Amino acid sequence: MKFNFDKEIERRGSNSAKWDNFSEDILPMWVADMDFQSPPAVREALANSVDHGIFGYPCDTDEGQLAVSNWVRKHHRWQVSPEQIMLMPSVVIGFNLVAQAVTKPGEGILLQTPAYGPFLEVAANAGLEQHEAKLIQGEDGQYILDLEAFESAIKPNTKIFMLCNPHNPTGRVFTKEELESLAEICLKNGIYICSDEVHSDLVYPGNSHIPIATLSEEVSKITITFMAASKTFNLAGLKAATAIIPNEELRELVQNSTHGLVSWTNAFGYTALVAAYQKGESWLKELLLYLEANREYTYEFVKNRLAGIKMTKPQGTYLAWLDCREANIEGNPKEFFHQHAKVELNDGEWFGNGGKGFVRLNFGCPRAQLKEALERMEKALKK
Ligand SMILES: Cc1ncc(COP(=O)(O)O)c(C=O)c1O
């Protein structure tokens, strides 16, 4: 390994949401950022900007869009031209903007639950009705689509479907067939697809990320796709995401819906995004090997040592979705592990329906930290 992902770096005192919101005895394994430094090429590019020392307005070249389009072509077999790519300060801002651009208050938005928490706020933000279709667990515990439920959740006023693929929190990477079924239903019902693919670079062997917009020309016309270097290269604080909108009319609609309120990205975010996509590939290859080993470690540990807790291996993401419903925990499992293990996890209930009794653990960290967290959880369960 050229890059050292075992290196433990003190994050307390660095204004980290993950670490600095808790007392020192708490080991944070929650929010989706990793405890690894970003690739050296990114740090070098940022250091050069800092050394230059003048932080004026950046200019509007298409270097960023070009870097994204090259990355997407190479990694996701998707040809998009730079003008089809909009830079955004964040995916969450982006999908709220898109929902507000393509709907009118009183119309409907369709989600699959459990869902990434901010998905559950989009309807209220845009004055929409929320329509929900549950993902269900197959016999092996892996989440699958319930297409009948999906279709029957659609109402005449449903205008947009928010897809999350790879799926947070379940870690599913949907297959071509699954995506085709969803897209077909959306096409049939005149529903736009807002596809959050922020975890698309973090997929494990045996699975392959397929941008839903690549299924056909027809599907690409109704789809807005979000991708970002933020999860892949651990840059969430720099605020640089991208929306890919091949349909020109739809792109203009989104662009014109900001009402002057969105500034697309900042100079550091832009610098980091370009460096990451241009020079981060070898780092990402090693990161994926490390994360895969962490995934295996977590899976074996949960299976053998966390009595009553169930986990299926995520096919993508660095997030483990732990089913604690049969672990004899009184009350909320997130609170239990906070109090008795001093480990901070995401509460399953934050992910809406289907999340009660679950916690989400982030294994994007050095192995020693992961081991410590799991051992603390084991001890708490044994007490
Ligand atoms: C599915 C999903 N979308 C969006 C985000 C956040 O993206 P951003 O920081 O660009 O708003 C996350 C972060 O965890 C996520 O998991």
Question: Could you give a short description of this structure?
Answer:
By secondary structure, this protein is α/β, with parallel strands linked by helices. The chain contains 13 helices and 15 strands.
What does this structure look like?
There is one protein chain. With 383 residues, the chain is an alpha/beta fold. It folds into 2 domains: 27-40 and 281-382, Aspartate Aminotransferase, domain 1 (Alpha-Beta Complex); 54-279, Type I PLP-dependent aspartate aminotransferase-like (Major domain) (Aspartate Aminotransferase, domain 2), CATH 3.40.640.10. The protein has 13 helices and 15 strands. It has a 7-stranded mixed β-sheet, with helices on both faces. Strand 7 (158-164), helix 6 (176-188) and strand 8 form a beta-alpha-beta unit. Helix 1 (40-52) packs antiparallel against helix 10, helix 2 packs parallel to helix 10 (267-279) and helix 11 (281-305) packs parallel to helix 13. It is globular, with a radius of gyration of 21 Å. The protein starts with 26 loop residues before the first strand and ends with a helix. The mean pLDDT is 97. Pyridoxal-5'-phosphate (PLP) binds at residues 32, 90-92, 116, 164, 168, 196, 198, 228, 230, 236, 241.
